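User
Class, as today's exercise, I want you to study this protein, comparing sequence with structure tokens, and judge whether sequence predicts the tokens.
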Amino acid sequence: MDKYAKSGFFTTIAVLGGCLGDVLGGLDVKLKALLICMILDYISGLMVAVIFKNSTKTETGGAQSQAGFKGLAKKICILFLIMGVNLIDQVLNTNGFFRNAAVVGFFANEIISLVENAGLMGLNVPPAINDAIDVLTKKKNKREN
């Protein structure tokens, strides 16, 4: 690959990243945290399935491509929802209120899933983390009822 092709490739990536960041409401600390936790949750889910063969997503507990693709599809759908909620904020001129609430809510779900994966690997999760998850779960259940 010559230097002009490389610069064109990286320019394209930068433009796409900028556009994606814009439609997601900006790459602030909340969105960065969500994206990092989404990646960590996916990788830890793969570890549970491939190494520990203890996945709750498959009958055998091992890895199956269909379960992996479903996980990726769900994470992409989360980003689509954030895009939609960001548009609601723009239409209602609410300065990111709904987008931030959605990002933090999905972030909490990703953290819960990450801790569940750690438990499936046999790690002893510190009580403080379990207590924090209990608080998040109770708040989530109150909103749903």
Notes: The radius of gyration is 18 Å. The chain has five helices and no strands. The chain has a mean pLDDT of 89. The first helix runs from residue 3 to 23.
